[in-house]
Structures
1.
Amino acid sequence: MSVAITGIGSLLTNDPELGTITDAAVVFDGDRVAWAGPAARVPAADERVDAGGRAALPGFVDSHSHLVFAGDRTAEFNARMSGRPYTAGGIRTTVAATRAATDADLSANVARYVREALRQGTTTIECKSGYGLTVEDEERSLRIAGEHTDEVTYLGAHVVPPEYAEDPDAYVALVTGPMLEACAPHARWVDVFCERGAFDGDQARAVLAAGVKAGLVPRVHANQLGPGPGVRLAVELGAASADHCTHLDDADVDALASGSTVATLLPGAEFSTRSPYPDARRLLDAGVTVALSTDCNPGSSFTSSMPFCVAVAVREMGMTPDEAVTAATLGGARALRREDVGRLSPGCRADLVLLDAPSHVHLAYRPGVPLVSAVWRAGVRLP
Ligand code: NIG
Ligand code: FE
């Protein structure tokens, strides 16, 4: 079954040859892109959809979220907006609620937020564990995440849970030992929160090295709340991504520029914690590959909206609209080492967003407006 979407006013493909095409069309064959180009040359297809001059772009790739959780942290958010600073300690509130939740409740929660994200154009989403922090609760978190996405990340090293407060190294031994053994079969990635109040450089190195040995690929929560060794460690270990990158010195930027690690920026976290934003301009000017993601979680960034992140990145982080939209699509794909998403090249997965706007620039130009008017994922149109 093939479908031709014609009458696209402006089509952002992220394909190096095709670029952005005006008066364009796309043809899907089953779950793949078969063709993209000028509408005047569109090949025949079983079905035709007229985009009516609207803009189209690849589905967003959200390469950083924490959706397996229960409860919420409205009180903490309220306190923060009255002046209390954000700390990693709030994570423990969600850990307690998550441990107490049933599998069915956790799964329903993930389904709800994946669906919420999809309605806003996110067709690929990564999802981490990290609110269980026991062997059993981390293992079930990953199993549940895997019911909803293929991009699953083991984050047993999110914080040290209260029962290990007196002996954090024993917790690192658990995370790199029995917990990893139970979790590795359910995950593709290993992550660690390398930050004061969570895990230091040595502990983070141990967690990532053990994960690699178990067949997982590293990504790192790095330099979110202050300067630290996370970014350089990520580059040294060949991590797919260093996430947050808010507090960087010249050596961090140089390391990112010389390596292949993507810098994933998460403006929802700075927005919701009233913190200074990362300097995307500095990274882009240094030649670093930048991704934008939501970091959707109940503590530091309770948004599932990639259009929101694009708008904030343009307003606050020195990105142009083109750069921000590319970072939210192709950048996310690179952070997940995926060739089949984030682009509308022939052979890629048929993930497309139609906007109620003439150009993808409107995602930043019209902040807060629900512009996503239709979404296809793997060739299937969202009802
Ligand atoms: O990416 N930084 C660590 N983890 C999350 C916050 C999680 C929470 O506060 O519950 C983040 O911001
Ligand atoms: Fe995060």
Note: Residues 64, 66, 221, 295 surround fe (iii) ion (ligand 2) (CB under 6 Å).
2.
Amino acid sequence: MFIARNILSKSLLQSSSTRRAAAISSQLSSQTSKLTHTHARTMASSIPKTMKGVIMEKNGGTEVLQYRTDLPVPEPKEGQILVKNDFVGINFIDTYVSIEITERILHEAASSAVRTSLTTNNSYFRTGLYPAPHWPYMLGRESEGTVVATGPGEVHSLAPGDRVVCLSEATYAEYTAAPAAKAARIPADLPPKTAAGALLQGLTALTLIREAHHVQAGDWVLVHAAAGGTGLWLCQLLKAVGANVIGTASTAEKVKLASQAGATHMVNYSHEDVKARVDELTGGKGVVAVFDGVGKSTFDLSLDCVARKGSLISFGNASGAVPPLAIARLSAKNVRLMRPTLFNFIATREEFEGYTEELMGFIVRDGMDVRIHETYPLSDVARAHQDLEGRKTTGKLLLDPSK
Ligand code: NDP
């Protein structure tokens, strides 16, 4: 067990150049066997013309989510694979707060630059915090299923019959035309639901602790919403690195779950003083990194808790968008501020493949836990969004597109 943990923490601490070299060599070996399709290939079993799916024709609350059974099955285009989805991952990015709150955030934004940055982000929320590129629009960012056809062009040796997990738009459906470059074969020994339960949030946590702030053994770090989907991954990975993790959560049940996942100290931020606890634990120095996916309601607290020369990694807006700030505030402690998105850490095939292989290894070899909160029927997507927005969930929410 000790040896396993040592190897794991070594692999988590490896430099990005070592990791990149490994990814490139794996890419080269896959190139020798790659299939470049000039015509679409299809599984023998017939693909229907229509499918179940959820679309939106306008922004709003959960009432805008329309469950339909008559949507056209998409055709895989250049570089795409057609995946028959078994499980679809739900992420906070899909839901966001209600349209009323969104509008208030935008009105409160003091400058047009903030509105521009919010509305040009490469993400599309149900509420319109970020605009949909077209109507009707289908939500969803990840799924697990079987390849049933491939489009023309480079499909990275994927073929009909392969079980894959992918990052793609428009996954709230039975079928998704996904970019092959963002799909990976699922290891044979991974049980159903695990890959869709892990991919987006696991990759987010892994890239945050490696590239946003490279956490080292012995570092003190603060993780907000530590019992959420991304939070539980951060706790597990940071424990493997050997960091001292101070987590925050809003209920006793969440505090317990995050502790079990690896947070060394937990603070219930619904009634405890986080700053006082951080000071007490770090001898007044503060934490070298804060991973803050809560946003508006925790940003000032995070800045208070970060150490001199530390990093504030603001990676999400669960409580609302962080209002504009005077950059001079950072100079009080020489704080590094970053607002990263996963998609810029895994933009190339090499980056996606390298990190995904590593993540799958943590699950298969090192036994990291993929906690599924609930698998909702696709027709019950509104309840799933309400639960996530209502802070009722821990771990991952999935959709079953067959129901
Ligand atoms: P979670 O499962 O973490 O759910 C969100 C959690 O945030 C809640 O359970 C709740 O935990 C906490 N929270 C605090 N205040 C609020 C509020 N006002 N409303 C709702 N929730 C609140 O979701 P995810 O793991 O999917 O995402 C977490 C964050 O990470 C989100 O902001 C998301 O956008 C971001 N993210 C960013 C990515 C990126 O690339 N930058 C990628 C993936 C996620 P508690 O009750 O304990 O406070």
Note: The chain has two domains: 41-193+370-400, 208-343.
